[in-house]
């Protein structure tokens, strides 16, 4: 009986060891695929995403294109909205949404203006373009009170 058990257990234990090695290699391959940064969204990067022409050009773009919402103007609403978006590897802007709103259409106007923006210079990590989340504060200030 002892001889028969040894004959059966040796191939089974070898088979189990092979399955464990195969499972380990699958896990390593899965980890390598996850670490290729294809879908990772960075918040901190070596080289930040940038509006074409830089911060001054972006401020000029905002000033020229923003339309103060009528209801917000009538109610003397002022303040900052914060718009979140992702700058993709090709510079397009996606997942545009309001994070902080002051009401009466200001958040919607912030989203509208970001959707009008041209492609950005994408962020880079280790010399490669990566996706970056960006938070953009937009101030609404009435000039004629």
What is this structure, in a nutshell?
The chain is an alpha+beta fold and 145 residues long.
CATH class designation of the largest domain: Alpha Beta
- Work out the count of structural domains: 2
Overall morphology = elongated
Mean pLDDT, rounded to whole units? Answer: 82
Number of helices: 4
Task: Describe this entry's structure for a reader.
This protein has 145 residues and is α+β, with helices and mostly antiparallel strands. It has 2 domains: 36 residues; 100 residues, TolA/TonB C-terminal domain (2-Layer Sandwich). It contains 4 helices and 5 strands, in the order H-E-H-H-E-E-H-E-E. Strands 1, 2, 3, 4 and 5 form a 5-stranded mixed β-sheet that branches. It starts with a helix and ends in a 5-residue tail after the last strand. The N terminus is likely disordered.
Helices and strands in order:
Elements lengths: L1 H33 L6 E2 L11 H12 L4 H5 L4 E9 L5 E8 L5 H11 L6 E3 L2 E13 L5
Parallel strand pairs: 1-5
Antiparallel strand pairs: 2-3, 2-5, 4-5
Key features?
145 residues, alpha+beta, TolA/TonB C-terminal domain, 42% helix, 24% strand, elongated
């Amino acid at each position: 009986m002892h001889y028969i058990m040894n004959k059966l257990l040796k191939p089974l234990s070898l088979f189990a060891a092979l399955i464990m090695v195969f499972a380990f290699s699958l896990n390593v391959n899965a980890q390598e695929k996850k670490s290729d940064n294809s879908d990772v969204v960075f918040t901190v990067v070596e080289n930040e995403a940038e509006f074409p022409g830089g911060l001054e050009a972006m401020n000029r773009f905002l000033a020229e294109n923003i339309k103060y919402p009528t209801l917000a103007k009538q109610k003397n609403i002022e303040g900052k909205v914060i718009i979140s978006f992702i700058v993709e590897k090709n510079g397009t802007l996606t997942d545009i949404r309001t994070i902080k709103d002051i009401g009466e259409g200001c958040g919607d106007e912030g989203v509208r203006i970001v959707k009008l923006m041209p492609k950005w210079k994408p962020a880079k990590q280790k010399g490669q373009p990566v996706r970056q989340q960006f938070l953009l504060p937009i101030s609404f200030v009435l000039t004629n009170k």
